Amino acid sequence: MFPMFQELAPHDPHDKCGHHYAICLDLKNQRFEVLDSIRSEADADLTTHAEFFINNLKETWNRHYEHSKVQIRHFLIEYVATAKQGSTTDCGFHTLEYFAKWAGRIVLPITAATVVEL
Q: What range does the record give for the signal peptide (predicted)?
């Protein structure tokens, strides 16, 4: 899994607000899985950011592991449906929960109690 941080106002040097989400490289099922607690595949900012990272990862993998039996250049991207957060500030908590509990395609519910636990 890769933690992702996307600046929401990259051209404003005073605004460091951003958004956390996760990308999982699933070798077993040969795909990339994007987990985001606010956005979905319909959001162009998410897909552009995620696809840029994934394409760079594929290129780097190919450069350093070109003779490996495992190749990832053909892996597709799946935007996993996740529970959406209830506020504009909980994305980091959701991302931490993805890392702690991700079992592949099953997103466990994240509740207010879970956020307090973190």
A: none
**Residues 88-117: pLDDT tens digits?**
788 888 888 887 777 665 566 666 666 555
46 vs 94: CA distance, rounded Å: 16
User: How many CB atoms sit inside 10 A of residue 36's CB?
Assistant: 28
Q: Which pairs count as long-range contacts for 39-48, CB under 8 Å and 24+ apart, including other chains? A: 40/79, 40/81, 41/79, 45/6, 46/6, 46/21, 46/79, 47/79
The C-alpha angle 81, 84, 86, rounded to 5 degrees, equals: 175
The CA distance from 8 to 15, in Å, is 8
β-bridge partners, 25: 32
Each residue of 34-86: pLDDT tens digit?
999 999 999 999 999 999 999 999 999 999 999 999 999 999 999 998 888 88
